[in-house]
Design brief:
The complex is a heterodimer of chains A (297) and B (349). Helices cover 75% and strands 2% of the residues of chain A. With 297 residues, chain A is mostly helical. In chain B, a hairpin with a 2-residue loop joins strand 1 and strand 2. Chain B is elongated and about 75 Å long. The chains are: A mainly alpha (297), B alpha+beta (349). Chains A and B meet through helix 9, helix 10 and helix 13 of A and helix 2 of B.
Chain lengths: 297, 349
């Protein structure tokens, strides 16, 4: 570049091309591997499909109408979001206290337990889920035996191929994301604030409920959004624990693509899942920001 | 009977001694400053009174009651923290009301007292603001109102002004003093800023390395520092080493002599404040030296005079008197009564 060119680049009064040129490669990458496939999937969902004729590139609403009218799809989407909501609530219930306890630990315990919580992220989801499948397996599975010996249940509860099983396994798999989000917001707390509450006569429980919890709620909510999105679109865990019998949106889309070979219907399911997730996440983000924006900025 | 008594208070952190045998008696309504450099144990002392740190040994009594036996959340002390430690999810009024709520005071009375407290610190118009939307000075006032509204027996201030800029800090000092006079709460201030301590306190406790160096009213502590540390920490001090003349009663440096208390012998250190030194003609019994630097600082001149006793700092008011130039040979002199004398190593007589 000539010196004159450099000068132009630094001149703030004239818009410079440099930032655009510099971000062009990554923009092209994003367009080619994210945007184009999504647009193609959306277009695919409007195509026709027949057992013998295959995919016909026409524009019809057949697949969308099928999803809209067939109660099988309603049930399947309802199950997907039921699981996602249950997993989100459970990770919040366990993850938030976990993060708080972790935050109050002293070194070296804090580092060790943080590693224990985050360590599973380094292991493949498939491996972790297969671990749960082993624990759940059959009426004489380890989990059932343990629960019966503790007297919590009288007869074996089926975990494999049930929503309960999927929820338990997904909760475990996604817990680190919640712990990390809450942990991050706990790190921002001023340690003197708890002392201030003590000096004003608050008990430990009051401090947790009135001082700490309200301040980490934005962290819990952002963790909840991440966990919800990951749970609703999870594939490996529902595929292994839920199997063929208990389908969720992602495993159904997979089956339509790879088993039935009805790509357009699979594309419609995938598109609907994507749209529903975007809608829910944007709305909840809005709500979080409106409620906590002024206070937390 | 003193109101608050610290009796041989000591705190060890492992092998490190943070607070060493600190004893202090505070009268009701008094404003006391714990002053010292960072790491001198002043904050740890405050935290032991507040109950956030348990002393290794020693006792704290408040109106003859053992304070250490009372849980920190039952002590009823008002504390203002360096970071203010306001509850960010509550408005100014809710912050102030929190302590009253904990005391189970009913809604009507609570509202009345919150309004009163915010009025006291001049923040009535900001009751419904969140802390993040307030300036540092305003947050500071909310923190003060929150501590005072519970009518604490003692108000503890932990470096409350150190996060404010210089101008605001001066304003807040005056205001803090006025508020404390109005309310009459016994107050303990922790600070490393000697000007702040002198401006606000009835008495200053100068601390160093966990120990109390001197306790006294600001003016007295400044004028008659008990130890070398206090002399150098409070304001600027010139220290001149001199020889006790044979027979005692006089200290000499070359041909210049000063009267000193008769019991000194050997070598002594004379300490003299820069603003107590005046210029005189060279010779004639005055210490002679060359003006090395001369700096104009608005209301006063700051000189460094190179003498046989080392570099001496002199401060003269900008009152129109004759101003020696750099390089000029001058005599410097002072009243013997303004001068401190102590043995070379050890405490002052």
């Amino acid at each position: 570049m000539t010196p004159a060119g450099v000068k132009t680049g630094l001149d703030s009064s004239r818009p410079s091309l440099a930032p655009y040129l510099l971000s062009l490669p990554v923009f092209l990458l994003f367009v080619s591997i994210v945007l184009i496939p999504i647009v193609m999937t959306v277009l695919l969902s409007f195509h026709d499909w027949g057992q013998y004729k295959g995919i016909e590139p026409v524009f019809i609403l057949k697949n969308w109408r099928e999803i809209w009218s067939d109660s099988y799809f309603h049930e399947m989407f309802a199950r997907t979001f039921r699981i996602a909501i249950a997993v989100t609530v459970l990770t919040a219930l366990f993850g938030a206290p976990e993060a708080y306890i972790l935050n109050r630990m002293r070194s070296p315990w804090r580092g060790i337990f943080l590693l224990i919580i985050l360590g599973p992220l380094l292991i493949s989801v498939v491996a972790r889920t297969l671990g749960w499948a082993l624990l759940f397996g059959g009426n004489s599975g380890v989990v059932n035996k343990a629960l019966m010996n503790l007297g919590l249940i009288s007869s074996p509860t089926p975990f494999m191929f049930t929503e309960t099983g999927v929820i338990v396994a997904l909760t475990h798999v996604l817990m680190p994301y919640m712990v990390l989000a809450v942990w991050a917001s706990l790190q921002r707390l001023d340690p003197q604030i708890e002392n201030a509450a003590v000096s004003l006569g608050a008990s430990q429980f009051t401090i947790l409920r009135r001082i700490v919890l309200p301040q980490v709620i934005p962290g819990i909510l952002s963790g909840a959004i991440i966990v919800f999105a990951l749970a609703a679109s999870a594939f490996a865990t529902p595929a292994i624990i839920g199997g063929r019998r208990l389908k969720v949106a992602s495993t159904l889309a997979y089956d339509e693509f790879l088993n039935t070979l009805n790509w357009p219907l699979g594309a419609a399911v995938a598109t609907l899942l994507l749209l529903a997730l975007i809608f829910i996440i944007v709305i909840s983000n809005r709500l979080v920001e409106r409620r906590y924006g002024e206070m937390m900025q | 009977m003193p109101f608050l008594v610290l009796d041989r208070l000591t705190k060890h952190f492992g092998a490190q001694i943070a607070v060493d045998n600190v004893s202090l008696a505070v009268e009701k309504g008094e404003f006391i400053s714990l002053l010292g450099p960072s790491g001198c144990g002043k904050t740890t002392t405050l935290q032991m009174i507040a109950g956030f740190v348990r002393p290794t040994s020693g006792a704290i009594t408040l109106e003859d009651k053992d304070l250490l036996a009372i849980k920190p959340n039952q002590r009823g002390l008002g504390i203002v923290f360096q970071s203010y430690a306001l509850f960010p999810h509550m408005t100014a009024a809710e912050n102030v009301a929190f302590g009253l709520e904990m005391q189970g005071i009913d809604r009507e009375e609570r509202r009345r007292r919150v309004t009163e407290a915010l009025e006291l610190v001049g923040l009535s118009a900001f009751a419904d603001r969140y802390p993040r939307k307030m300036s540092g000075g305003q947050q500071q006032r909310v923190a003060l109102a929150r501590a005072l509204v519970i009518r604490p027996q003692i108000l503890l201030l932990d470096e409350p002004l150190s996060n404010l800029d210089a101008k605001l800090r001066e304003d807040m000092q005056i205001e803090l003093r006025q508020i404390q006079r109005t309310v009459g709460t016994t107050t303990i201030l922790v600070t490393h800023d000697q000007a702040e301590a002198m401006a606000l306190s009835d008495r200053i406790v100068v601390m160093n390395q966990g120990r109390v160096e001197q306790i006294g009213p600001p003016h007295e502590t400044y004028e008659r520092p008990a130890t070398a540390f206090v002399a150098s920490f409070l304001g600027k001090t010139n220290q001149i080493e001199a020889e006790v003349a044979p027979g005692g009663g006089r200290a000499s440096l070359g041909s210049v002599t000063w009267p000193i208390p008769p019991h000194h012998e050997g070598r002594v250190v004379l300490s003299i404040r820069p603003e107590k030194i005046g210029f005189a003609d060279p010779g004639n019994g005055a210490l002679t030296g060359t003006v090395k630097t001369r700096i104009f600082q608005g209301n006063h001149w700051l000189y460094q005079v190179d003498t046989a006793g080392g570099l001496i700092t002199v401060i003269r008011q900008n009152s129109g008197e004759k101003v020696p130039a750099e390089g000029e040979i001058v005599g410097i002199a002072w009243n013997a009564s303004d001068m401190g004398v102590r043995a070379v190593r050890g405490a002052m007589a």
